[in-house]
Amino acid sequence: MPSSSRCPAPSRKHRPEFPAKGFADLHGARQWAAAFVHWYNVEHRHSGIGDVSPQQRHAG
């Protein structure tokens, strides 16, 4: 993988609300993942794309 590639994997465990002991069930994991994807794509600013969110970059 090129060094310029970005992946949410390094970020996911650094979010404070990531459960240290894992998830109680599949439903809880899915809920957390959906919230994380929203944060990562809509709220989180990415330095590699000009300190904007992917949603902002896509919308122009």
Overall description:
- It is built from three helices and no strands.
- It is mostly helical and 60 residues long.
- The protein has a domain at 25-60.
- It has helices spanning 9-12, 26-43, 54-59.
- The chain starts with 8 loop residues before the first helix and ends with a helix.
- The longest helix has 18 residues, at 26-43.
pLDDT averaged over residues: 79
- By DSSP (H or I, 4+ residues per run), the number of helices equals 3
Shape: elongated
Largest sheet: none
Q: Approximately how much helix is present in the residues?
A: 40-55%
List keywords for this structure.
single chain, 60 residues, mainly alpha, 3 helices
Please summarize what this structure is:
With 60 residues, the chain is mainly alpha-helical.
Write the layout of secondary structure elements.
Layout (H helix, E strand, L loop, with lengths): L8 H4 L13 H18 L10 H6 L1
